[in-house]
Amino acid sequence: GDTPHVYIAWDNQPRKQVFLAQSADGGQSFGEPVLIAGPEPDLALDGPFNIRVGTLKDSVVLVWQSGRAGGGCNQLYQSSSDAGATWSDSQSMIDGLLGCEQTNEFVRRISNEADGPLYFLTETKGQDFLSMWNGSQWSQPEAQQTLSGFEEPEIYTEVIYGCHRPALLGEELYIVGCDEGEGGDVWVTSRDL
């Protein structure tokens, strides 16, 4: 409809829980928070964390990690095709990530374009993956080799390309990041999606 829905997702890491709250009136009021995932008896040390929420028209998707900091983990998701009224069961998005200390984020559009899929950037130890949500399913994660590092073209030194901030303008993906190695410079790269 004409009234925007607002979704807020957050972690309660000490309790190993991730939550979602929704507003159907543009943020004027919110329903009770809903527990999306919590601790499981068989996985006492593991827990859910790092939850993110993205929307594409009436489709809403939640992505979070399950595991433990410093260890391996899985990336899970849950989706709704009716603006959050009903939800699918949680499903695996990426299994066996190379560590849980990473960045996960939906790529924000710079302009107010509402069309097009959602993109999700996953950064893990030395690897970056881009996935696309079309409103009902995820694409296979695609490795983004340049985002891990590259050779500086003028002085031929290695750039450890980190602290990524992605943005989408039209069908061009821009990544601003910093050299976490010796150079300390700020870099920007782009690619056509």
Give a description of the structure.
The chain is mainly beta. The chain has no helices and 17 strands. The chain has strands at 6-12, 17-23, 34-37, 47-56, 59-67, 73-80, 91-97, 103-106, 108-109, 118-124, 127-133, 142-143, 150-151, 158-159, 161-169, 172-179, 186-192. The strands form five sheets. Strands 4-5-6-7 form a four-stranded antiparallel beta sheet, with no helix packed on it. Strands 8-10-11-12 form a four-stranded antiparallel beta sheet, with no helix packed on it.
What order do the helices and strands follow? EEEEEEEEEEEEEEEEE
Instruction: Sketch the major β-sheet.
Output: 4 strands, antiparallel
List the strand order in the largest sheet.
4-5-6-7
Number of strands: 17
Determine the fraction of residues in helical runs and give it as a percent range.
Answer: under 10%
Determine the mean pLDDT. Answer: 86
The coarse silhouette is globular
> What gap, in angstroms, lies between the N and C termini?
30 Å
> Radius of gyration over alpha carbons?
18 Å
Number of helices: 0
Low-confidence stretches: none
- Beta fraction of the residues? over 45%
Write the layout of secondary structure elements.
Layout: E1 6-12, E2 17-23, E3 34-37, E4 47-56, E5 59-67, E6 73-80, E7 91-97, E8 103-106, E9 108-109, E10 118-124, E11 127-133, E12 142-143, E13 150-151, E14 158-159, E15 161-169, E16 172-179, E17 186-192
Parallel strand pairs: 9-15
Antiparallel strand pairs: 1-2, 2-3, 4-5, 5-6, 6-7, 8-10, 10-11, 11-12, 13-14, 15-16, 16-17
